[in-house]
Amino acid sequence: MEPCSRLSTAPVELKFYGDFEITTNLKSVEEFSPKQLILLESILGPPDVKLQLARMALETDLNSLTDSHFRDRYSGPSVRDLLDIVLPCLQPVEQSYWESLRDGSGDTLHNEIMPVFFVFDVRLKRTGIEEMGT
């Protein structure tokens, strides 16, 4: 019997977890345009929209803070993804304004919507590693 045949090569399965808190940092809203303020108010009203944006903020942070293990698993939203989520919670006149930026020139949509998105702050509360049951 070869000595290597007794060595186990079965993988060890572990579960990594992180508990995050996503808050809204309203310090930067002083420089917001009236349209950006209306957009932010519309986002913070419906819990489902706020939850979707909070999740996107977390995914954006995970994408920027991790390397090989999480690469290509979390990418964060595009400005068009953000727009698609927030449009339904806006009044028609506001929808029209933001929709017009979708096909606007250059980085207009990006420059208008990203400051609103970055109001969401992600804070890591705790992490851990657990063994997976067999």
Give a description of the structure.
The chain is an alpha+beta fold. Helices cover 44% and strands 17% of the residues. It has helices at residues 34-44, 47-65, 79-86, 92-102, 108-117; strands at 14-24, 120-131. A two-stranded antiparallel sheet has the order 1-2.
Number of DSSP E strands: 2
Overall mean pLDDT score?
87
Fraction of helical residues:
40-55%
Order of helices and strands: EHHHHHE
Strand content: 15-25%
CA radius of gyration: 21 Å
Output the structural class.
Answer: alpha+beta
**Main beta-sheet strand count, sense and barrel state:** 2 strands, antiparallel
Coarse morphology: elongated
Number of helices: 5
> Which consecutive residue ranges, at least 5 long each, have pLDDT under 50?
none
| Strand arrangement, major sheet | 1-2
Oligomer: single chain
Which features would summarize this protein structure in a list?
134 residues; alpha+beta; two-stranded antiparallel ribbon; 17% strand; elongated
Q: Which SSEs are present, and which pair or pack?
A:
Layout: E1 14-24, H1 34-44, H2 47-65, H3 79-86, H4 92-102, H5 108-117, E2 120-131
Antiparallel strand pairs: 1-2
At a glance:
This protein is α+β, with helices and mostly antiparallel strands and 134 residues long. The chain has 5 helices and 2 strands.
